[in-house]
Amino acid sequence: MLPEAAYWLVWSQISGIGPVLIRRLQQHFGTLEAAWKANPAQLGEVEGFGFQTLKKVVEQRSRLHPPQLFRKHQQENPQFWTPADTDYPRLLLEIPSPPPLLYYRGEIELSENLGQKPLVGIVGTRKPSDYGRRWTRKISTTLAKNGFTVVSGLAEGIDTESHSAAMEAGGRTIAVLGTGVDVVYPAKNRDLYKGILTQGLIVSEYPAKTPPERTHFPRRNRIIAGLSRAVLVMEAPIKSGALITANYANEFGRDVYVLPGRIDDRPSQGCLKLLSQGATPILKELDELLRMLGAIPQLDGVEISPEVEQVPSPDLSPELQKVMDVIAAESLPLDLIVQQTDMATGEVSSALLQLELMGLVSQLPGMRYQRVH
After folding, report:
1. What pLDDT, in 10s, does the model give residues 99-122?
2. Rounded to an integer, what distance in angstroms lies between the CA atom of residue 372 and that of residue 359?
3. pLDDT above 70 coverage of the chain, percent
4. Considering its fold, how many domains does the chain have in total?
5. CA dihedral in degrees (126, 127, 133, 137; nearest 10)?
6. CA distance 290 to 122
7. What was the pLDDT predicted at 313?
8. Alpha-carbon gap, residue 32 to 48, rounded angstroms
């Protein structure tokens, strides 16, 4: 019996069927195996499947054999996730167009995939100023030292600075490529790529040996935004891929933070535009940024104990107490609280609101919650 992952693969091979339509198929039929075996009339019930799309499916489906294709793909691309896999990054499942296949190389840390460790995207221009480089390195270093994983795109400029600074600080970083995971672009970042393989992860929705193409890079920006709890734009002109990432972040309900710049600096024009649209400015005191991102920074010379003194709450209902028992000093995302309590999302949201009104829990940006103490 073929795994469901084989059907995510085979549907992705049909031209004109992208991530959004595959997601609709899965939601409509329950499984992509059932969708693969459905007749044209049944497929026509799915939104977006018009006559031309159905024609392509009928023509191409007869030439594709899931078992054979899956075996061949495993040989050529052995390391990949599909949304059917439990290791698939949970935050990506929240977006409308999760990659049907996400290839990877490097060191996996499941806490990142499960949403237990916060990921922050850092993006910006390929030609930053000294000011942009300096603050990118400072912020990436601070995030890495406070337990965040830095996500970027391995491009020149801001991406390169964020990856390298995070690793130099002893932290992890994830590079999202617009090529196959075995293709280094730009070539000058080969050493950086090798470092990430041992201290982070390389991911891409494109199979091995896929060369760089202009259309790939705007699409990969949705993955950077989708993986991240928040996106930081360091320097970006008006026409910049970083602004595409920020737009995706807004669409996906992620927080967007921006490094302010001077009004007559070209690399800052996109950042100023984002600020005018409501993005949060990154100010000099990075403790405030960490607080907003949900981190508990280390005080100078003082180590903060992870132990949390239990708040006496004898009058809580069983449902509220169940949620309260999960909440810790470090912020937790809503989906993880739902998972650990084994309660419905609506019940958890209601309980969190009540606990917040009682002053026992505080909500942070990005639908994260922590104890008040």
Report:
1. 999 999 999 999 899 888 999 999
2. 7
3. 93
4. 3
5. 10
6. 14
7. 46
8. 16
For the four alpha carbons of 243, 246, 251 and 257, in that order, the dihedral sign comes to negative
Within-domain flag for 252: yes
| Number of CB atoms found within 10 A of residue 240's CB | 22
Half-sphere exposure at residue 162, Cβ-oriented, CA atoms within 13 angstroms: 34
Q: Is residue 307 part of a domain?
A: no
* pTM exceeding 0.70: yes
- Do 222 and 241 touch, CB atoms closer than 8 A? no
| Cα separation, 141 vs 137, whole angstroms | 6
Share of the chain above pLDDT 90, in %: 66
Looking only at the bridges linking them, the beta strands covering 173-176 and 149-152 are parallel
Phi/psi for 140 (5° steps) reads -60, -40
> Which CATH number characterizes residue 138's domain?
3.40.50.450
Residue 340 lies in domain: 318-371
Regarding whether 184 and 48 lie in a shared domain, the answer is no
Cα three-residue angle 353-248-284, rounded to 5 degrees: 75
Q: Does residue 281 lie within any of the structural domains? A: yes
Specify whether 136 is located in the same domain as 249.
Answer: yes
